[in-house]
Amino acid sequence: MSHPRQEAVGDRFDPQLMQHARERTWAALQGIRARMQPGISEDEAKAMALEVFQKLGMERLWHPVIIRIGPNTTKTYRERSEPGVRLGENDIYFIDLGLVFSGHEGDAGDTFVTGHAPQQQACAEAARQLFHLVADAWRSRGLSGEALYAFAERQAEAIGWRLNHEIKGHRVSDFPHAVHKAGDLGELGERPSSGLWILEIQIAHPTEPYGAFYEDLLTA
Predict the structure, then answer these.
(1) CATH code, 3-217
(2) Model's pTM, two decimal places?
């Protein structure tokens, strides 16, 4: 598959609207974070999230809302959460949103900690650190998608975390991006263009049952 085909967009595509969708999706994520309290379940959190989306004028979801708590933070988006998990007083959780605003797809994910959980906090910060290291390598070295994830694996190991190899980023565009069948960012053999690809980083503690997730749009 050629690079132009993998970066194809629709007639309505507008880079400024992509940035608008990105900003609105991050606002939604922070709105959910502000409402996350110990005792809440993942299903309750997802139901609460719909109120946040309505206030921000979301048009639709382009992927299901994913909220993982505690041991479920090691699971990929394809895996089902273990039922009955509720947010603890000193706990970790992440939010992963795929929302459509003005016909364009936003995708954002981040990890947070409640109370005093220093090891889990270090995990959340490591996911953000890895994201920025990889994004900076894309900007400064022009790495391909494949090379970005090879770099991410080396960096994760260097700081003591395990990179989840099943999570390798993807395209976004004017809705629906899926018509272009672009594949994963981690399979792209050329340098991804700005404003079209989501870099996803998911890590886990090498021995303990928790992990962290961070994703955002790659932008120059």
Answers:
(1) 3.90.230.10
(2) 0.96
